[in-house]
Amino acid sequence: MTNADARDFSLDTELEETRGWDEDDTDLLETEDAIEDDFESGYADEPDPDEPDPEELTTGQLDLAERHELRRVAGLRTDLEDITEVEYRQLRLERVVLVGVWTDGTVQDAENSMTELALLAETAGSEVLDAIYQRRQKPDPATYIGRGKVEGLKEIVAATGADTVICDGELAPSQLRNLEDRLKVKVVDRTALILDIFAQHAKSKEGQAQVELAQLTYLKQRLRGWGGNLSRQVGGRAAGGVGIGGRGPGETKIETDRRRINTRIAKLRRELREMKGTRDTKRQERRRHQIPAVAIAGYTNAGKSSLLNRLTDAGVLVEDALFATLDPTTRRTTTADGRVYTMSDTVGFVRHLPHQLVEAFRSTLEEVADADLILHVVDGSHPDPEGQIAAVREVFAEIGADQVPELVVINKADAADPMVLARLQQREPHCVVVSAKTGEGITEARSVVEGELPRPGVEFSALLPYERGDLINRLHQHGEIDSVEHTADGTIVRGRANEDLAGELAAYALV
């Protein structure tokens, strides 16, 4: 049966009715693209005002960003405990317990020492779980803290789940071995902790070689303390059925390791001697031109790099951490009257600085001993700034810098107690108070530094022809000009200069 209302179907007619559909879609798409091209968000393409331009970042800011690229955020953790997880999922901080022995001083001194040890441990990349210290006349020769305290420490380690114990002192190899045997966890002393921080922060080739030399010197006497299964020596029936090739006196693995360490130490010392030659050449060049040298030294995290940035716009790395910068930085700067001098930032000091580091970094520390002026930076906000001053001056005496003129710079005035600042100013009359963070007192400090620089020793009075403008420029850079008078015959200059420059001026001297 057919529908009477149905019309005849024609394919050509149906196609004709759909002919304009594609053109309508194309017009719609072109309209949408035009709208998108004309659309402006108002903020998407504008630079973030809080984000610095990558091209304007200083070297220190780039180094700090690189150091923070892989850093675990404390307090954020997951429940993943399966050891089969991917390695980067297992990134975690060492869990440590601090142990100290208080032999002299006050209780506050002992607590300050433990606080500093905690900061060192956190800088090295660990999580401090607990800290204990005890009063003794001297550390126990066998276990550092005594047999009874070792049992109590073992309970603390088991209760907290710590995997490392850090002692606030330098342990003998026997003390290290005894503590590890009884505690069943890794034991590290203060020296090894500082060496580990230096190994993390050393960047230059010389700095890395110096740190490795100090680590090997420390490790050479403590090979036995890192485990008891180091012997390869078998012989005769003691070979235990090893058979042919396994009998005989043999050689212990400790002896092999010690021999390799001695070989490596000798190689590092040769390399450091070559690097020292380069450093000495640069220093002799400055001496030949009689350019004054200023060295910035002081306790670690006192603000030495920040002060260098304020005084010279050096742009070196600045971080609120212990031993953030190790490699020395020297910058050329000028006084208000144009005299040229250099300013160097050196490695920071700390209480009980390991002797291995002092020996390894001796070529670097010579910058302090050979300086014409030392800026001794002190953290005015520290609980014990007097103790820091004493510790730094002990290192000065050890490296032969105790006779160099010293200007004490009390830093962090914005965070320090005014009573503490007044006490330090009374104790150290030759000092200035600054804040490298806010810029407070920097102008005064710069003027004091310029006044403390060694002055040229030869007075002169010369009539310089106008074509000898080069001598005028050198007098501004390396001498002191008291007066300048322009005449028809030339420029009359009076002042002070070093011997070499004064000799060149003798041909133009006024009678």
Short description:
This protein has 511 residues and is α/β, with parallel strands linked by helices. The chain is built from 17 helices and 13 strands. Strand 12 and strand 13 (491-497) form a beta hairpin.
Q: Number of helix segments? A: 17
Q: Choose one word for the global shape.
A: extended
Percent of sequence in beta strands: 15-25%
- Bin the helical content: 40-55%
Q: Write down the overall mean pLDDT.
A: 79
Radius of gyration: 35 Å
The beta-strand count equals: 13
Q: What structural class should be given to the helix and strand makeup?
A: alpha/beta
Give the biggest sheet: 6 strands, mixed
Provide the fold topology.
Blueprint: H1 11-17, H2 21-38, H3 59-67, E1 94-102, H4 107-124, E2 126-135, H5 147-160, E3 164-167, H6 173-183, E4 186-189, H7 190-201, H8 205-220, H9 253-288, E5 293-298, H10 304-312, E6 329-334, E7 340-345, H11 355-360, H12 362-369, E8 373-379, H13 385-399, E9 406-411, H14 418-427, E10 431-433, H15 442-452, E11 458-464, H16 469-478, E12 480-486, E13 491-497, H17 499-505
Parallel strand pairs: 1-2, 1-3, 3-4, 5-7, 5-8, 8-9, 9-10
Antiparallel strand pairs: 6-7, 11-13, 12-13
Descriptive report:
With 511 residues, the protein is of the alpha/beta class. The protein has helices at residues 11-17, 21-38, 59-67, 107-124, 147-160, 173-183, 190-201, 205-220, 253-288, 304-312, 355-360, 362-369, 385-399, 418-427, 442-452, 469-478, 499-505, and strands at 94-102, 126-135, 164-167, 186-189, 293-298, 329-334, 340-345, 373-379, 406-411, 431-433, 458-464, 480-486, 491-497. The strands form 3 sheets. It has a 6-stranded mixed β-sheet with strand order 6-7-5-8-9-10, with helices on both faces. A 4-stranded parallel β-sheet has the order 2-1-3-4, sandwiched between helices. It has a 3-stranded antiparallel β-sheet with strand order 11-13-12. A hairpin with a 5-residue loop joins strand 6 (329-334) and strand 7. Helix 8 (205-220) runs antiparallel to helix 9 (253-288). It is extended, with a radius of gyration of 35 Å. Residues 72-91 and 225-230 have low confidence and may be disordered.
